[in-house]
Amino acid sequence: MKIFQKLSFLILSSSILLSGVGLISLRGNEETQSNLDKVIIAGDNANNHLENAILYSGKIEAKTYHYFLQKKRGIPEVYLEQHKQEILKILPKITQEISELNRATESLLQFDLQLPSQEKELHKDEVQLIRIIDKLQENSERLQKIIPQLLESNISDGETQLLSSQLEVLFEDEIYPLLQEYQTNFSDNQVKRTEIITNHIDNHNLAIANATLVALLLSVVFGLYAAYRISRPIEQLRAAALLVGKGNLNVLVPETKDDEIGILIKTFNEMISGLNKTTVSKSYLDKILTSMGDSLIVIAPNGTIKKVNSATCRLLGYQERELIEQNIQIILGDSFLNIEHLTQKTFLENYDVTYITKKQKKIPIAFSSSIIQNARGQTEGVVCLGRDITDKKESERALQESEERYALASRAANDGLWDWNLLSNEIYFSPRWKSLLGYEESEFSNTPDRWFKRIHPQYRDRVSQAIISHLQNPIAHLEISYPILHKDGDYRWMLCRGIAVQNDRAEIVRLTGSQTDITQSRLDKEKLRRQALYDELTCLPNRAFFMDKLKALFDSSKKRRNKKFAILFLDLDGFKKVNDSLGHLVGDRLLIDFTARVKKCLRIKDTFARLGGDEFAILLEDVKQIDLATNLANKIFKRLEKPFQLEGRELFISASIGIAPYTDKYFKIEDLLRDADTAMYRAKMAGKARYAVFHPEMHLEALSVLELENDLRRAIKRNEFELFYQPIVKLASRQIVGFEALIRWKHPAKGYISPGKFIPIAEETGLIVEIGNWVIEQACRQMSRWQERYQVAKHMTVSVNVSPIQLKQFYYGNSSDYLDRLQEICQQTGLEPGCLKLEITESTVVESFDEASKLLKEIKGLGIKLSMDDFGTGYSSLNSLHRLPIDTLKIDRSFINELSIDRDKFQLTQTILHLAQNMNLDVIAEGIETSPQQALLTELNCQYGQGYLFSKPVNSKDAEILIATSQQFSSKYIPAHSSLN
Length: 981
Hints:
This protein is α+β, with helices and mostly antiparallel strands. The protein is 56% helix and 18% strand.
């Protein structure tokens, strides 16, 4: 008994000990199971994000391709905008899914299996996964840059082609291969992790099996039970894990009860299902192909058949083995489709072709195909889909026969007829109805959607509401007009009339009516409206349109005091010169290009109008601060910096802009436009290519200028002008060698008016020509008198300034008129032409060198001398100076004033003098006011000078005194009338 008790105790102790070993192993299995669960969860998370990344990549590639296909077909911008927004919504999702994939992968890779030796086996794959995701993120950033650029509406065809190529390469060579590589590496990584965990499970199972074996010897019943409940399912799990490790994912372990082993088996099966999600088995694809009702044929690039489904064999009467490796033409016969055609077209859809059966019977087929390309863009095959449309063809033939009489009648009508069966939701369209949209009778399906989807989106709801209203009140006729898309991509305006048809129970069962093309009548009305409100050349609103819009905004602002706006008045600088020199056709083209550039600076709600000639106006709404208007002006100036390319020439054009903001003080729109015009002239007078904001003082100044202009016109008739003369002396001897004639205006009420005030007005109004001729005539007449009276004046010259405006009129006009006038003046006054010297400015010559050179040579041919005034202040080329028939250079007073203190001015003056000596030109220094200046110029071999050191401009009497006394100016001499400028 004791022995039995001891044996029993020993058995019990051993059982407890072995049970402890089993429990420890089971606890290890529980920890391993927990690890396996975490690996599966992290793997599933990564798989989900991978599938989303693939999905969104496919969507954005397809939608982008569809967008450019639609754009190439000329689909209106309103449709393209919808596609564009869809693309821009999907675009960030790719980046988001790749980021989520990165986080899921990092979570998995950072997971510690607590098995350091095995983890070393995974390190290489993990580094590869991290590299792939980094490249995916880099390429997603490239997508974020390329696609928005592609969707810009104003990019050129060349830029579109370049960016499209970059996008295609990015998808085919980078993103898709990376996703596939990630999928493969990730699956391998998961399998390896599964093998590691399974091996760990096997180790614990071995300990459990040993413990179970010993326990089995101690207790047969307990051992058999344990072997049945534990060893068998674990062995099944182990065998399945080994198969998975070899790459076989089509295994499942029979599930047991909800104990620890059952949970482990269930988790194992879920893991295998998760791995299967990342791949599609061949059997699964075979089942799909077998279940297809349509014919599917896969052909190689050389035209041989590689794969057919059951539907193809049934349709053609062949066995599969009879078609494999045969040429596709055995099926297509002499169809226009051949292997070259199929491999050159990326996608074909719904082509009507004929298949030839084994018995040589022809079957009508709706044919589609798509090429298969590898990651390098090489064609690996073509997938062809065919649908038997025999029944459809027979139905169409039957329908055609049944409607033949009605069709003949509808063809005779000019209007398109339609008949809508509301019960079957089918519409009959007459051939004329279809031809109004550019379609043949067989090209347009009899469905309401085909009709309504072609109606312009902005009118679809209106048409639908009109039909609903008519159905609710069928007594009234349906009549509505709308634009509908023609086959050529343009919209045509149609007038649709219809009436509801009721059955014997007063139920509406049909709608029937007609459709009339009213495009031309609407175009005629629109043309009349545009002619009344739009400029024909630039297609901008004209003055009438602008004034109507301005009045509406003006009235609205009067009612709503917080509503502000402003007017920008634009005038092109130098536009008349373009018209005169290059012709009106070039001028018109310049106005069109100018309009296009300014439009790019404007908002949608801004109104840009051509008021006439080269005058434009912009109406800015919602102007809370004047900065909005000034910023717009600066944008326009920036756009005009680039030259215009016209008729093979580069033309630079600028604009002067006047800005007038609306205030409550305005009561008439004409006053606001007038003030904007006034500000524009202020900008033009300030030097052009700039803007000016209107200030009330400008209006007063404008009135003053207008008054001065009127007085100026009267001054010519009243002989209110007078010439003053400033002596030109020889610096070495201080003897007078000539005079410069300077005009003065003695106003009867305002006294002497500075030339700086009235000369610009004279140039702008064109009065400068008459005034200039008067100055030349008076100066020549006066010098001729002095030469008759005084021997010392025989060789004196008189210099007269010629306005740039005056010369430019003869550049582009009839120069012989000017030459004849000069010759006539010399003859009438008796002055030798060599005693008359015309002074021109440096800038006048530079602006139109060729024309100026020609005119100056003709003047020189008369014997008249020429002087270049203000030399050194402009930007003339010294290389081109020798090409001009100049006798004298006049150094500007700005050089003389700083001659002794500014080294640069001194050196430039010295250079001018050397240049003049080499070219045998006289030099006159202007503005000499001190003896040191004279001494320094004399030392530099400057021959002549004029300035206050010798005399201010004096009237003719005082000038004659200087001549009569043969005055040599002392350093202290100041004429009696020195107060006159």
